[in-house]
Write the structure tokens for this entry.
Amino acid sequence: MSEIRHHVTDAMLAAYAAGSLPHPFAVLVSAHVSMCPDCRAALEAHQAVGGVLLDQAAPVALSGGLKADILSRLDDEFPSEPVYARSGVYPGPIMQTLKGRAPRWKSLGMGVRQDILSENAEGSVRLLYIPPGQAVPDHGHNGLELTLVLQGSFSDETGRFGPGDLEIADEELEHTPVADPGEACICVAATDARLRFRSALPRLLQPFFRI
Amino acid sequence: MNDKTARGLAAVRSMPRKEGDRVQSTPRELSQETVWMLAVRDRRDRMAFAALFDHFAPRLKGFVMRSGTPAEQAEEIVQDVMLKVWRKADLFDPHRAQVSSWIYQIARNRQIDVLRKESRPVPEELAEDPDAEPDAGQILALEQETDHLRRALTGLKPEQREVIEKAYLGELTHQEISDQTGLPLGTVKSRIRIGLDRLRKELKDLQP
Ligand SMILES: [Zn+2]
């Protein structure tokens, strides 16, 4: 895999670790982390901060029977949770969002195809398939939009994005991403709930920690 | 304890200890929590699990309640998390996470799953080479790094500490996160970074 150049911001990694990132973004952050050792290491550092805070938390007494109850349940059968592994160009968290199925492409014309994986009050997650030389369709985003490349690449005014690269675009970014020659570009795009985060989100890009 | 861990621990114990080190210096031995967790992972040791429970369960309850969860529901989360610690022990990797970080992430995932009623997306697990020898140096280095982090966090003023706690409990809104300026987190950050650099190199080595 070629070098990943465009990464998740520290603020987003911290928010992901803490669980406060909107679901569509959590899908893309966990997919990028699956592909990027640098961001995995950074995420694990944030988790270490959380761990220290947990370790130092003031203990609160438990109900009397809780410990005995848990110890008695150690041998219980338990349902195994599905583990989604990478399949082809789709990392585990994307397979999880697909619920293990193959993409169901719908044509948008000019050879461009999409599969909407989720779309609700929290925002949307969609897969896009863009033939070489075609423009990535405009989703009319008002807030923040993340795009993670899974195969091929696209370029716009801000640079070139290949497999594993994450583009973070806010509403102020005027750009026209076009799939590069060669392999078709497959990417996954996430938007958040527009109204709720509209004004606040671009500022999320600011680093959470001042360095 | 399996051979792999036994060898790793023996290596840790035999690591040279410099004379004249200050007591406050970094740890030279695996933390008690790590030893318990490895005993659970490798030997399904119930006593060690009970010890982990005694240490973490009351803290977990306090931690979960701090994010506004009522006591009864907090205990349900504590149960789920501690059972997961037992059932998923094979996923614990002391080269990459302290027991507390690992349990923190299980707890956050659980709290979000309860809220959302569906599984939160999580990164793929790194495939571990089953024949890989435990690297005592790496395990200890991570413990030492966490110790630095712990001291840096302990040194914060109460208000600053409050902000950090809220953030890692998922309590801050985006606006609040972006409004937190001027936090003197340089120390914490540089500590994390040292750890990151090392982790990053190790993880790169794992890449095919
Ligand atoms: Zn990255």
The mean pLDDT of chain B is 75.
